[in-house]
Write a structure and sequence with these properties.
single chain, alpha+beta, Translation Initiation Factor IF3, three-stranded antiparallel β-sheet, 34% helix
């Protein structure tokens, strides 16, 4: 709920018209949940402008590389 409050606070500050949520790996579910809670419970006039998914390669401790999924969700009033 802290992320939900942060999104709502950003929009209610007056000059913010767009908020971008970014997450990767297991945090992707949190970003999607925050988006849906804000849209369905608190700010029904919010629009999802763009959703971008991708993959980042991260170096592992063993010296190899590991692919991690990413998401970027752009919300606007």
């Amino acid at each position: 709920m802290a992320y939900v409050l942060a999104v709502i606070t950003s929009f209610n500050s007056g000059d913010t018209k767009e908020v971008t949520l970014k997450a990767r790996g297991r945090a992707i579910t949190t970003a999607v949940d925050v988006t849906e809670i804000v849209r369905r419970r608190f700010m029904k006039d919010i629009n999802v402008n763009k959703i971008t998914t991708g993959t980042e390669e991260l170096a592992t401790e063993e010296g190899g590389k590991r692919a991690v999924s990413t998401i970027e969700i752009v919300l606007s009033i």
